[in-house]
Amino acid sequence: MKRLRLAMAAATAATLTFFGATTRVDAQAFSNVEVTQEDFVLLAAPGGGLLGRPQFMIIEQKSDAQQCWSESGSNPVQIEPLLLNFDFSGICGRSTDSNGYSIRAGDGDAGSRFNLEIQEEEGEYILVGTPSRFPTNIYRDSPPMRLGRTFGQAENGFTKVFLNPGWRLTRRTLDGRTLGHLYLTHDATLAALVEQNGGPTIENPPVVTDPTPPPSTPTITFRDVTNDVYATQISRAVEIGFIAGFQDGTFRPRTALTREQLVSMVIEALDAQDNISIALPSQVTTAPFNDVASNRWSAAKIQFANQSGIVSGYPEGDFRPAQEVTRAEMMAVVRRAAEYRKRVLGQGTALTPTQGAFAFSDTEGHWAADVISSLSAYCGIATPVNESGSAFVPNSDALRNYAATAVVRLVDCPN
After folding, report:
1. 191 vs 202: CA distance, rounded Å
2. Between the CA atoms of 188, 194, 200 and 205, what dihedral angle is there, to the nearest 10 degrees?
3. How confident is the model at residue 92, as a pLDDT?
4. Considering only CA atoms, which of 333, 365, 36, 343 is closest in space to residue 171?
5. Res 58 pLDDT > 80
6. DSSP-derived secondary structure for 45-79
7. What is the pLDDT of residues 8-49, one digit of tens each?
8. Is 232 within 8 Å of 16 (Cβ atoms)?
9. Is the pLDDT assigned to residue 220 strictly greater than 60?
10. 176 within 8 A of 159, measured Cβ to Cβ
């Protein structure tokens, strides 16, 4: 996933299986790319459950729209996770388990060999890699690898983790495509790292492979989407990075979407596309609409979307950013986004049908009837509510689960 590029105002004009079928990929197919370390903070966070064990978490600052965390003190450094106080979709990233991070050594993906976790030791937290107990894991009897420490425990429980020398963050790639998964990376081989941490010397260690190879993209789960009809698409949407789950481990699939949230999703999704680079001003100097202040978290994206013809305001000059958007209105925005994508790629603006249009039972005479029909024929973006029956229900609220699905279908549409 590309980070949303930020440019100075003067320099710019403007939480499953993916893809339906399960595709298995050897862990060695994964590679990695460097990231800007300062865009991330690693922390030990208060744990949940009966045992209340501390949890390892990584927070990413994706854009400058709003600060995702703050720091105070030293030895230890206390973290205030500010992203808990606003909808951080497209602004912040949050990885809380092995779906979002794993260990990578110089000879490849080591996520099947060692699991990352936080342990308490003499008044501080230690980030360790503990060996998995797979019978085929030749390192299963090794001591935990020490990757970082906190130098104490913060009063609020959120304590910054400092990586030990040699360790850094990178991001996973597959077939040249950057994914959201993060690696705790060391350039030494896994065998060398194990030996450095007091483990056995492994003569001629095998190439690091996963005995149960992962899907082509990491599985992202939320406790409230397991049975959701759009669970697969939600997982894909989070992986692309244009929408995120919440701190409590939920996605809230049936929560209504607002106009500014939809704009944020669409802009982030477009920017994640190959050969599309969206430059947003780091600071908006003039309010794009009467009711969108220049310092609002969504102002830059709303300004860009308006200038690019993806959205428009109301006749009186308002945008109504916090107003819930209907399914019909969402289709209108997605169609304009699809046309924008084709235009910047030099392909005109015509949306060539990829399948037959769906005959909805409740759109005749509706202002968005043609838009909905055309998007049902264009990569199946428009579909009946909850993928059942024949009603589109155009005037009902656009919910997070279908909004994520519609944008995923746009991103993955080949035309």
Report:
1. 6
2. -50
3. 86
4. 36
5. yes
6. E---TTT---EEEEEEE--SSS---EEE-SSSPEE
7. 222 222 222 222 222 333 344 688 999 999 999 999 998 643
8. yes
9. no
10. no
Q: For residue 241, what are its two tokens? A: 């990075």
CA distances from 197 to 147, 201, 240 (A): 10, 11, 36
pTM, rounded to two decimals: 0.55
Q: What is the pLDDT of residues 2-12, one digit of tens each?
A: 434 333 222 22
154 pLDDT above the threshold of 90? yes
Other Cβ atoms within 10 Å of 224 Cβ, number:
17
Q: Which residue has the tokens 């990929």?
A: 25
247 CB burial (10 A radius; 0-12, 13-18, 19+): middle
- Name residue 157's amino acid: G
Model pLDDT for residues 244-257, shown as the tens digit of each residue:
888 778 899 999 99
Give the CA distances from residue 151 to residues 71, 122, 154, in Å, rounded to whole numbers and listed in that order.
15, 10, 10
* Gap between the Cα atoms of 210 and 136, Å rounded: 10
DSSP assignment string, 129-156:
EEEP--TT-TTTTSPPEEEEE-SS--TT
At 306, which amino acid appears?
N
State the Cα–Cα distance between residues 121 and 153, nearest whole angstrom.
10
